[in-house]
Structure formats: structure tokens, C-alpha cells
Amino acid sequence: MGLLDRFRAQPRWKNGSPAVRAAAVAELPLDQQDTLVAVARDDRDAAVRIAALRKVIDPVTIASIGRVDADARVREEAVTLLVDLASGAFEATEPGECLAALAGLSEPKHIIAVARAAANESVARAALDRLSDDGARAAVARKAALPAIRLEALGRLSAEAEVAAVAIRSEFKDVAVAAVERLSVRDVLNQVADRARNRTAAKRARALARAMEAGAEAAGGAPSAVDPAVDGEARRKRFATVLCERVEALAAGGLEEGDAALAEIARAWGSLDTVDEGLSVRFEAARSRAERVIAEHQAAAAERARARQADAEAAATRKSLCELVDAASGDEIPAGVAGARVAWTALPPLSQPADTDRWNQRFETSCSAALGRHRAVVRQREIRERALGLCSDAERLAQDGPGPEPRGEVQALRQAWRQVTAAGFDDAATIARFNASDAKLCELEAAARERHAQALQQDHLRLQALCADLERIAAAEAPPLKQVERALRDARTAIDEARPLPTRQDRVAIDGRLKAVMEALSPRVHELRDLDEWQRWANAGVQEELCRRVEQLVEVTDLAEAAKALRDLQAQWKQVASAPREQAQPLWARFTAASDAVRAKCDVYFAGLAEAQAANRVRKDALCAKAEALALSSDWIRTADAIKALQAEWKTVGPAPRADERRLWERFHAACDGFFTRRREDLQQRKQAWAANLARKEALCAQAEAIAETTDWQKGIDDIKRLQAEWKTVGPVRKTRADELWQRFRAACDRFFEAYQQRDQAAAAAVIAEAEAVCVELEALLPAADAEIPVAPQGLADTVADIRRRWAAKIAALPRERALRMGDRFVHTLARVTETWPASFAGTDIDPEANARILEDLCLQVERLLGPESEASAPPDSVEDQTPAEALARQLREALASNTIAGRSDESARWKTVAEQVRAAQAAWRRVGPVPDSASRTLSARFQRACTRVAEKMDRARRGL
To answer: Where in the sequence is the domain holding 896, given as residue range(s)?
Structure first.
């Protein structure tokens, strides 16, 4: 693609949008086949390819596209188009094109469809030739549109089952009856008679089946209604007589199916072995007569059918010509009517003259109506074209605006429009279009009239103002000569122009004032001209002085000062520029020569100054370019420093040429301001983001601080981790607050995790504190050390029992060492309480006296283990009155007794039992409630001593001592 091609507009069928390409393909004419084929082959979208393929004419191209396209929808559309083309579904399709389309089809189902639907017999036969399967041929025979193709397909069937299927399923009489004729099995004929869709075929099958049955009876192969006593010869004769009667009856009736009936009778006659000669002669004569009558009947019927067909075709042709004339429209009507008349005269006459007259009358009516429509259309077109032309003229005039010349054209235009509407033109859109233009023209005319009136009024006001100015000049004491001369010329010009004014009186008044001014100014002009001559003479001396001063400037070395002085002298010269005519030119030449000499020296100075300014312009251009390059940067700190450095450098650069100085400064200033404006906006946005992030982080800190106080450890861990993950997603905050917030959040998280790591110690401390509180509560029941023992508090036993229950719940959760220490303290305190008020605990498990007895019993029990023979003489206790300690002692005694009775056969088992009894006694000892201190110490020492002795004895026994 060339460079110019890139800038040319691409056609719409190459647009990037599939919808636009599809619409463009729909608009492409059929003569652009190359474009349509290219789109159908190469377009990226399958829908666009299908739209293009539908407009491709060549069947070979359609077949080639359908074979290679990757999209199944395109391939299916190609096959559908080929089937339609081959079937003649499109008008004006040539047989060659139909055959080419058929050649592009390969699947049997598509070829069957063409054979069935093809309007051209050669195409249908070509499709049938490509079918080799009896099933496919049967499908064509059943439903082909052309009778010849149906019968030909039936003739190519070899399987009797397919022939029977055609007879049963086909709705066409010709092929169904022909299929029945090919059947020879009576059972199959019976099936066809029962199931055939065509009644004639069913009737024919039933007749053939009956004939076969009759023939079988005549041959003796089937039971008959004849008396069994009658022999075979009689039966055959009777059957032959019946056949002769049936043949003779054909001449009188049943001529519509005479051929079939005659063939059926002939087939039955041929099944007879021997027939009487008289019957044979009779049968042959009857058959000849029946054949002749049937042939004559069929010929007459065919003739009538041909006449009806000819009349129907002629009537259809006449109807189509009338409809064609009725449907003609526009400019085609005259040619269409002429052609229809030529075709009408060539039509053959109808069999009935009345029908011919009726059709002729209808045709003439259609032609007259069509020509009338054409004349009306032409008339309406002419009126419409004239109306459209008037609308265009009105719109042109409305656009240009009616001036003085088009005013008459507008009136003529309106007159012509009235003629058009009077002729019956009623197009609402065109009328509205003209009315809109006419309304605009009316507005323009009114505006023109208003402008004309305003122009006259403005001219009047201008002339009045001119008269006032001229009168002021005429009344002035010393007006300048040039002003008076100009005023005199203006007055004379205004009188000569004589422009129209709103009224005649206004014109007369203005002319009178102008003439009065001219009469007043004429003498003043002469006076002022004389004064001007004297002024010129005086200016000559001043000009000579100015020339001398300019000539002196040539020697001045300060060129800047010289240039300034030259400008001042030139300004003074302008004030005394008028001089006598004979001296004016020499003085001006002298002044100009001196000025040129001074300017030549100054030009060198200004040239150097210009070079310096040009260099400064280059430097400032470079600074502007650098500033503009930095203006879009987002590195705010470094860029701000760089721009500040550029601003400082700008101040060191001298001035540039005056024409560029302001432009350069505005460019540099705009670049700097652009950057700092962006920085301020970014800072504002960052402040807003910082504020939002600050609020989010403060909320996270507050949540973390709240979680730090919880003891729901798993939930707290999950929440803290969630807050930490969310903290990472929050953006930055202002630097002054960032570290503070982070320390706050981290401290809250650390406080929670420290508490989590020390959760066991905290729980233990809480339990210890609670146990300490229980001990303190129990100690609070005791009186002071130096106070008298008071009366026992009300409900002391219940209070102590409640304290003991709570103590038991707490002591189990204490560490072992702390439990031992605090247990001793609690037990000691409980003993003091029970010792102080023993009566309050009488009968309870902490009754000190009862507990002392239990301890004493336990001491006795362990001591008895040292002397078994003394146990035997001890009186037995009542089981019901025994305490737990007594019951234990009894059990020990029984065990020892059993060991004694058994002898020393198993000494090891005996001492094992003793050890278990000692451990049981020790366990019982620990379960005993409080005992007074004095008794507790004595009994404890005694019990410990007994246990020690038992242990020593057991140890000696194990060592065999």
C-alpha cells in the first residue's frame, strides 16, 4: 500500500465493525461480483461472509467457497444456495447454471432435494441419474414435482418393498397407480389397499387383489362359493362367463379406469387353462369392443382436457397481461401498454366468444386506466417539479436576502406558487417548505424596510452631526487652516451628494445649514492661508537650527545618547514641518542627510545590541524548552528545584528583542505555572488521600486496642491478623503522623500477643487470687488474737461448708507447690475455726472431736498391723455403728486374720496386702476433716511413727531378717 493509499478513505465493506461491513455488503450491487466473492472468501466474520455469499451468482464459486470455509454456518448456507439454484428457485436461472449448481452438491440428501423440487426436467433427471440407491430413488418417486421424473424414478426401482412403499406413501395418483400395477403379491396388494394415501391407488390394489383371488378360485387353488358337487370344468366355465360379462359391461360404464379394469380381466382370463371356444370368441369380441370404446372415451376426454387447458392457459395469459397493465406505474406505462397491446393481438381466441369479449373489455379498461394514471403522474410530476423549483428559488432568495432588485422576483415567485396550488398540488412537505421560505422572505423584507428606514435616519443624524461640527468650526476663534479647508470640502460634498432623507423637509433644512456654513467658512479660509504663509516663514529659521543641531550629533561618541537626541530632534521637526515652498525642500534634504549620517553610526551600535538580544533570545528559548520538558514531570521535589534553578538563570539573561520578549516570558511563565499548578493539585489530592488513610489507620488502631483487652484468644488472633493484613492495604499518611500511628498499632498488637503468651500465668494468677480470697474469707471468720471468743455467728456451719466447696474447686486448678502451701494454710485456718466454735460443727464432716476419734482409730489400725495376735482377742464392732475409719480397720483385721490362718505359705503376698492397707489408711487420714492443733500434732506423730515401724518391719521381712 502506497503512502497516499493510507490517507484514502477505505470502503465500508473494509470497516473494522462487522455490522458496518454487513450493511455495506447488503448495499453492494450484483454487478460487483469480484468484491462480493472477495468478501465471501476473506472476511473475518462468518455473518459478513454469509451476507456476501448470498449475493454471489456463479454456482461454481459458491461451491468452492462452501468446500473450504472453516465455519459450518457458511458451508451450510452454500449448500442451501446450491440446492435453490439447482431447483430453479430463483427466477431467470438458466439450465446450465442449475446443472453447475447440481455438480457442486455431493450429499445424497441434497441431490434428492434437487430431484424432487427441480422445475427443469433435464436438471431433475440429471439429479436422478446420480442416485444409485433404491431408497433414494423411491424418495424421488414419491414426492418429485415433475410427473415424468416420478414415473422414471419408479421405473428404476428393483426392490418390490420400495415399490410397495411408493404405492402406499405417495399422494400422486399417477405414480401410486403405476406402482400398484407392478405388484404381484396378493398380500402386498391388500396392504396397499388398506394403507395407501391415494384413493385411486387403494381402489386399484383392491381390484387386483380380488382378481387374483378369483383366478385362484377358478384354478381350484382356493375355496369358492360354488357348490362342492360342481366339478372343476363347471367352475372354470362359470368364471369365464363372469369375465365375459365384465368385459361386455366395460363399454357401458367404468370408462375412467377402463384400462386398469380391462388389464385386470385380461390377467384373470389368461390364468384359465382351457376355455370353451364360444366363450373365447365372445370374450375376444367383447374385449375388442371395450378397447375401442375405452380408446374413444379417452380420446374425447383428452380433447376436452386439451381444450380446457388451452382456455385456461389463454385466460391465464390474458389475466397476467391485464394484471401487468394494472401494475404498470410511472414512465413505464406507455411502453408497457403498447407492448401489452401487441401481445394481446397475438393471443389465440378462446373457445367461447363471450369470454373473448369479456377479456377484451377488461383489457381495454386496464389500458385506459393505466394511460390515465400516466397522464396524471406526468401532470403531477410537472407540477411537483415546478413546485420544487419555486421552493429552491424561494430558499435561495431567503438565503441571499431580498434587496432592492429581487423584490420584484419575490412577487413573481409568489404569483407562480399560487398558480401551482390552484392546480391541485397538495404535497404537505413541499408546501410547508415553501411556506417556511416565504415566511423567512417576509421577515427579510420587513427587516430590509426597517434597515432602509434606519439608514435614512442614520444619514439624517450624520448630516446633522456634520452641520453641527461645521458650525462649531465656523464659530471658532482661531481654527487651523487645514481644519477649515476640510470643513469647507465636507460641506460642498454633502450638498453635491444630496442623499435621500426621511422627509423632504429634512433635506431642505440640511441644505440650508450647509450653505450657511459654506458662506461663513469661505472668508475664513483666505485669512488663514495668509497666516499660514507667515507661519511657514517663521518655521524656516527653526528648521535651520534643527539642521545645525543634527549635524553636531555626528561628533557625539555616546551612540545611545545620540540616537535618543536624534529621535527628539525628529519629533521637533514634525512640529515645524511646514516652511516656505522655495526653502522647504533644501532644508528637508539637509536635515535628512545629517540624520542619515547619525543613524549610520547608531546602526552599528544597534546591530551589536541586536546580536546580544538575539543570543539572549536563544538562551531564553532554551530555558523555555527545558521548563516545558519539566512541566509534565511528577518528580515534584527534584523538578521544583530544577525549575527554580531555571528561574534564577532567567533573571541573569539580558533582554531579548522587543518583539519576542513578551512572548518568551509568557511561554516560560506558563510552563513554570503549569508545573506548580499540577504540584499543588497533586498535593491537594495526596492530602485528601492522607486524610482518608489517617482515618482508616486510626480506626484500625482503635480496633487493635479493643482486641488487646480480650481473653477470647483464638478470635483475638484471627482479628489481629485480619487488622494487620488490612493495615498493609492502607496507603500512606502524612510523615509527621506515620510513625506515631504505626507505634500505636504495633503496641496494641504486641500487648495482645504478650497477654496471649502469658495466658497460662495469668490464669494461674487469677486462680491463686481467687484461692487467696477464699482463704482470706475463711480467716476473716476468726476473732482477733487478743479478743474474747464471741458467740458463733449465725449459720457458721453453712458458711464454712460453702467456703470449703469453693476451696475444693479452686485448689484443683492451683500449681502443686502453691496448692500444698495454701492447703496447709487453709487446713490450719479451718482447724482454728472448728476449734473456736466446735459446737457449730457437731455432727458434720468437720466435727473436730469426731475427726480426732477417726484419727485415733487410724493410728490403732496401723499399730495393730505390728501385732496380729492381739487383734484376735479384740471384740468385733457392729457394722452399722462403724465409721469409715472403723470399717477400714475391720477390713485390715480380716485380711490379717486370713493371712494368719493361711500360715506363712505366701509371706510376700501378705506383706503386699499390709502395704496396701497402710496406703489406704494414709489416704483416709488425708481425707479426715480439721482436728484441734494439740490433738492433731499428737495423733499425727503417733500415726507417722506407726507407719514408719510397719515400713521397717516390711523392709526386714523382704531382706529375710
So the answer is: 847-961
